[in-house]
Amino acid sequence: MEFLGFPRPDGQVGARNIVAIIPSTGCVNAVAQQIEKMVAGTRAFTHHQGCLHPPQDTDRVTRTLINLGRNPNVAAVVVVGLGCEMVDMESVVKGIRESGKPCEGVQVHKLGGSLEAIYEGSRIAAGMVYEASKLRRERFGPEKLCFCTKCGSSDTTSGLSSNLVVGEVCRLLTEAGGTFVQGEVCDIMGGEYALKDLCVDPEDGDRIVRFVKRLYDHGIAVGADVRGSQMTAGNIAGGITTLIEKAMGANAKGQNVPIQGTIEYGNTPRCWGGRHIVATPGHGFENLTGGAAAGAQLILFTTGRGAPNGHPCIPAVKICGNKKTNANLASHIDIDVSSVLEETETVQQAGERLLELACQVASGTLTRAEVLKFDSAMEILIDGPVM
Amino acid sequence: MEKKYAKQIMEKDNVATCLADVSRGETVTVKFGGNETEFVANQDISFGHKIGIKDVAVGGFVYKYGQAIGKATQPIRPGDWVHVHNVVDHYEVI
């Protein structure tokens, strides 16, 4: 279970060597995108938050941006600010620098315009990329691996094959000392008591139940019963009948592995190693950002009907158990596990095969979403209201 | 003709998941615990959708993964297509 990764000053190990361009507010996405075009090896982490938030959302967006910058796949960071936003650029820079990584800020108001910020940001980023390119991958063990997981465009095959295979990887990885981060509170809904029973610390079990209750109450506050809206037309067309059925299939991504901790959105686990539950939504853009902010190097992304999207910070390994989708969307799927449904391979065998691929991706093998550049969109979860 | 299979996950389950598109009147084979049991589909059932393998009365639980996943809103007979038209979610948030 060894892999070749980039050692970071804080002891984490990256699967990629990105120079991240992080806007502190969506208002300056255009600047970050121009820097990305100007300088090879950079990725713009564009989003649409950073201003007119209630204080708790400002705090959450700030800590999420800091922890994205501190993700091990990131070598160095240029933070782009406007100058009047709620998420303070200097706080983001300071938080990222605490990890020991190079990080600089460029502010449009201070520099006298977007062209000036693009120039200054590109100049700094070019130097960072040059320095980052001198780093070499080194061999590390599973205790330095952290995988997050997500299911998107699910169907019945997700709960009968791909999620079971990811569950096997969760078991193998955590037994070897690695970290596994599982979220999607909406998918946990219906299965929260099953997860509670797996918590090492009962307080974490209560927190998981509260994660679900919080989501439910939030829905009620805006006049929606999320138990109904969580089931998509695609889920139903694929054969999933109820939320509990979906939850049982989704929970399978962690098998019956004990749960070591819970994580609020935008935070990292309180200890490394073992299975952790993070309060991410199911919606991919916010979900994957939550996994990246938690410190995962890659996503084990199961899909039934074919979700092609990745994330700019962490590669997404697409795992599919639907024979039709594997044939129809072959260019978007990294590993076919329909063998589990066909009963030509056991869940254990498929799990070992997926773990081997994940270690290769952690060592530099590209995912389909990376090759196809289907990995530029991301978002940060806010509770609102948007003011 | 090639056999059409449905997957039962746990012994307690009263539904199995079809691994092929099945037409009304076709035979579906459920493999579980070394036994093969045959059912005749009472309706067309798509790949990934569930077929009833035991009788369920109105209000009775539908079991998959060994867990109650919903309640029957109509009587379910072996061979019936089991989905949103005859099952309702019973989940309550406390």
Description:
The model of chain A has no long low-confidence stretch (mean pLDDT 95). In chain A, 43% of the residues lie in helices and 17% in strands. In chain A, the strands form three sheets. In chain A, strands 10-11-9-8-12-13-14 form a seven-stranded parallel beta sheet, with helices on both faces. Chain A contains 17 helices and 14 strands. The longest helix of chain A has 20 residues. Chain A has 387 residues and is α/β, with parallel strands linked by helices. Chain A is globular, with a radius of gyration of 20 Å. In chain A, β1 and β2 form a beta hairpin. Helices cover 0% and strands 39% of the residues of chain B. Chain B is mostly beta strands and 94 residues long. Chain B has no helices and nine strands. In chain B, the strands form two sheets. Chain B has a six-stranded mixed beta sheet with strand order 4-3-1-2-5-8, with no helix packed on it. In chain B, strands 6-7-9 form a three-stranded antiparallel beta sheet, with no helix packed on it. The chains are: A alpha/beta (387), B mainly beta (94). Chains A and B meet through α6, α9 and α12 of A and β7 and β9 of B.
